[in-house]
Amino acid sequence: MLTLNGLTGPARAYSWAYSGAYSGADSSAGKVARTAECQGDWLPGSPTAGDVMKGEISLVGLPPYKIGKKINWSASPYGNRSWEYVFQSLRWMGTLVVEYENSGERHYLDRATEITKDWVARNKRGARGTKLYVWKDHPVSLRTQPLLCLSRHVNAGWLKDSLAEHAKLLSDPRLYKKGHNHGIDQDIALLGIGCRYGRTDWANLASRRLTGTVKLDVDGQGALMEQAPRYAVYVYGRLQVAMTGMKECKRKVPGEITRRAEALKDFIAHSTMPNGYMVPIGDGSADTEPKMDAGTPKQEVRTYRAGYVFGRTAWGERESAYYSIRFGPGMKFHGHEDHLGVTYYAKGRDILVDGGFHSYEKTAYRYWTLSPEAHNVPTVVGGKFRPRTPSKLVKTSYGKDRQAFRLTDKAYGTSRTRSVLVNHGDDLMAVLDTASGGKKVRNVWRFDPSLKLVSKGGGKVVLGDGDFKVTLLQLSSCGRVGGQKVQRGGKLGWVSPTYLSKKRTNVVVSPSAKSLLTVIVPGTDSPKVSCSGGKVTVEGVSFRSDLF
């Protein structure tokens, strides 16, 4: 028998410490106690309480689904795992309880109670007909918040029993997702139940685990270790919730959590492009806005040991150039096989982009977006790709108007090396790719969908959007390398800028060579280029042919 407040027996025998909880309201007076459990920022943007009352819910950006009066808890109208998880989280039900607190109108609470009681009765853990994903770690932790919210106004045995069942799973070490945002959510949920009902053992466990998980998920520099910068915003927000929960539970917030949460803000700022959107690396959409004040870091360029270089010309200028480079530990969590990959933003627009994030659905296209072919990376001709291979940043050169970086790994069994130079003011990016043992390399360059093919030939590809033009040049040992292929659609020419979207875009596929120097020049279709004596000059900008 599960216990709350240390008591055993049927739910009606539980003694609950309400700390000012409200188990009903005089709707005629319109006054209902507002509670911390209900008034937080955990509610989704949609659906609204009005939508739910009408029997219609819209989740994860998909079209509205009519749940009706009698809900089908096995519903999966779009065959979408994210929809299923959010549906089972019951956060949409929580909008009704919050509306009850705000308006004092009893019918919102009555419908919330009816929905939840039906869910509890028809989704017993381990019972026939209950979908396995209903009791996965993330739906369990996210569902705890609306259940706790409801418990502030409904004193019922079935609800107490369900919360105790949730706490049992949340405290099970076999199910704990350490070092991951799911683990943080599990700790927030367990802390909430423990603090709500005076179970210090649960609250102590949650507090203890959270410190260890944060140290694994956010490194000492403030970089998120989940390999998708957009999740840093989620983790930062959840850490604010966790710290608030600790304070409300009269617990001291560990200094390590406070420090790393604060350091996350710098990471979020650096991974946000001049247009206000986060660079879409890993499982991150190009339409992600932090919607928080991350502040302005002191440096324009920051290298993170977790595997990122972020750089820009200046803060606060939309026209500023911006670039990202990937390296570091092998792919995990929300990462992609994007090592040695680059993105480039210049003159107020995206130039080089990643394949993007489509969804978490188990489709061939989803797995393609994870692959090297969906990123701006070099490949070793004839080599077999080795997934989850780490890479190293081995050389750097920092200047105010120019930075250069050298990276290497053995993702194809032999060393491949990429050097990247970014020049500011006279904007350009130069990238040199080589492989050891005389092996040849090839690379792919994915351009923003707005850029259409204008011309190609003689080692030069021009793309444009109206009057704006951008040129790609390729050389090998100072000689122009021709034979580039341009795909739009087909096998490679795709990008997913937003959730569940798929757009055709132009991808330039290079010929193979023992060394490939690729130069991206935004703002022109006819750059002047010369190369001799180990020196390359493009539009008056000179640099060594090895980029250092």
UniProtKB/TrEMBL annotation:
Protein biosynthesis as UniProt keyword: no
List the SUPFAM superfamilies.
Chondroitin AC/alginate lyase (SSF48230)
From the UniProt record, which GO molecular function terms apply? lyase activity
Lineage: superkingdom: Bacteria
Stretches assigned to the Heparinase II/III-like C-terminal domain: 331-506
Q: Which residues form the Heparin-sulfate lyase N-terminal domain?
A: 61-292
Subcellular location(s) of the protein: Periplasm
Keywords, comma-separated and alphabetical: Lyase, Periplasm, Signal
Any Pfam family: Hepar_II_III_C
Question: Can you name a GO cellular component term?
Answer: periplasmic space
Entry protein name: Uncharacterized protein
Its taxonomic placement starts with: Bacteria, Bacillati, Actinomycetota, Actinomycetes, Streptosporangiales
